[in-house]
Amino acid sequence: MLKRIGVLLGLVAGLTTGVMDARGAETAPLIEAVRSVDAEGKGARAAAQAFQKLAQEGPDAIPGLLKGLDGANPLASNYLRNAIESIVDRTRTAKGKLPLAEIETFLKETAHEPRARRLAFEILVATDKTNFDRLIPGMLNDPSTELRRDAVAQVMEQGNGLFDEDKKDEAREKYRLAMAAARDDDQVKTLKKYLEELGEKVDLPTHFGFLMTWHLIAPFDNTAGKGFPVAYPPEKEIDFTKEYDGKDGVKAAWVTTSTDDEYGIVDLAKVLTPFKGAVAYAAADFESDSEKPVDLRLGTPNSWKVWLNGKLLFAREEYHRGMSLDQYRMRGTLKKGKNTILIKVCQNEQTEEWAQRWQIQLRVCDATGTAVLSADRKAPPATGGSD
Distance between CA 239 and CA 252 in Å, rounded? Predict the structure, then answer.
């Protein structure tokens, strides 16, 4: 009897898989039509028609739609997310069943698009709130920063509970665990405060991966903004022993500085001189133990260009827009061995008090914001030793 039941279940499972495969074959061209729309709207009519059909699909289409989010551009992603949400809402209203096992499988495959996995997570939690506490503990080091953030928050709450119970040593361990995984500045600041109250030292520059030592040179002419497109000598060669003719007859020579700001901010006006209408360059060496893709994340209120090993990664000609952590993100590839990072920082001639900042802040990290450190800069434990 049990054997017969097992055979029957196998047949049902096979039929279900067959139905889902058939639906996948039918929806695949529609998903591709949506994914083909570009940022300028080319293919928008076909995408809109495909979206209308996808939004009317049954719940078995959800796993395929989630996969369709992998690598999709923002416009296509909006179409696909809206289609998924329409199907989920209609299925719940009709008290139908969602393919929860397949959605959870998608969530656990971390190579998928982080925001698509977040959507899968939200569907699972909305279906059963206990899924939050079941799934989140395994996401403390998740490549999705949103899922990781929730996991960090959960561990922080556990630490707070232990602290309130006067279990300080246990609370400290929870805060250490959360700190090692935290990537968002607000959580890092809070955890730093908690740990320091418990006698811990926290090394923020290392945690974030800020570059702290730079070679600087200035001033080159940026009168009326003319210096931004000009390739001054540091863009052609980096030789820290050389000096050049600078703006207004001033000799431009390299100086080396190390900042003690815990967010890696280098104040060019203080280290050099508060030149106006001037260009400065900042260069740093970075030793990598292997070839690897990285993010270079810059903060500056000035116009700028960034090169990695002589390759221009990005540039922005805009003054005094403000400065914030991870304000600009660039993707580059470190080569094995010595790498050179060069930043061009242009200051204009405005005299208002708010226009005097001439600063940079740069960190090297992976796509999740996890610090990538130069091989000659060893990472300490997640938090330093206690006092």
Answer: 12
